[in-house]
Amino acid sequence: MVKAVRMLEVGGPDVMRYEDIELGTPGPGEALVRHKACGLNYIDVYFRTGLYPQTLPAGLGMEAAGIVEAIGAGVSYVAVGDRVAYAGRPIGAYAEARIMPVDNLVRLPDSISFDTAAAMMLQGLTVQYLFHRTFPLQGGETILFHAAAGGVGLIACQWARAIGVTMIGTVGSDEKAALAREHGCTHVINYNTENFVQRVKEITEGKGVPVVYDSIGKDTFTGSLDCLAPLGMMVSFGNASGPVPPFALNELASRGSLFITRPSLMNYTAKRADLEMMAAHLFAMVESGKIKIDIRQRYPLSEIAQAHRDLEARKTTGSTLLIP
């Protein structure tokens, strides 16, 4: 038996139960991973509330790091004793241990701790695909990135600086603005005291930006479109304020033949070769010191409900860990 978080219904933080479950043994192509640390991400809220549907009863959590304790038949990517990490489906990382498909696991370099890995896999791989695959940045661009003081945002601040990109970031307080600047964000806009569309136009001398990375959703969607230069791309990769409402495609034409995409990490890592390439790039950025993973909150896994409350109340900054 191991402790894990389970939910029988969707709803608020109190639907999550911390209870004993039977783990079993790994089958073909699977490995049993004993978790040392688990990551907390806003996508977990979407699954908990039912915005992203899943079959119930179910677990929660999409990233963790730990040690392989057992493997099933036909496993070649990992061996017993390997230090590993993962991000993505199947959901259920909020647990002391679990059985995972080995295709989802990557070996950790000795230089990267379990805490760092669990805090960066989903968020760091997200920045990797956003900056190098969804809208490949060459250096020299000026971009807009919402929620610049969050876990993804602080990695994006550093990554943008490392590749020579000028980042305009939005935040919700002066304290978060200072944090984003410390991590390399060039221009920071407090959207509670400033009009972010107006400020972006001022910063870019009326030109707008070639790309907006938006994980906020409903509250920022229209404004984000208004920040784009003609032929610019809107990258909507989250819904922290709620899902984007339906809109007419002509809105893209009237603003200058804009592009829009709704990417998902799981699609970008679906092929093993892509996952290994992206993880190697992320590990190299961290090992070089260009990106430091800022872990600002730690909760015992048993206090998962409070962790979710704090996340939804926007009390957290940087990365958050759950400790089994």
From TrEMBL:
GO CC term (a single one): cytosol
UniProt keyword annotations, A-Z: NADP, Oxidoreductase
Membrane-spanning residues: none
Domain Enoyl reductase (ER): 11-322
Pfam family, one: ADH_zinc_N
PROSITE patterns listed in its UniProt record: QOR_ZETA_CRYSTAL (PS01162)
Residue ranges the record marks as coiled coil: none
InterPro entries with a match to the protein in the record: ADH-like_C, ADH-like_N, ER, GroES-like_sf, NAD(P)-bd_dom_sf, QOR-like, Quin_OxRdtase/zeta-crystal_CS
Gene Ontology molecular-function annotations: mRNA 3'-UTR AU-rich region binding; NADPH binding; quinone reductase (NADPH) activity; zinc ion binding
Protein name (record): Quinone oxidoreductase
Organism per entry: Undibacterium jejuense
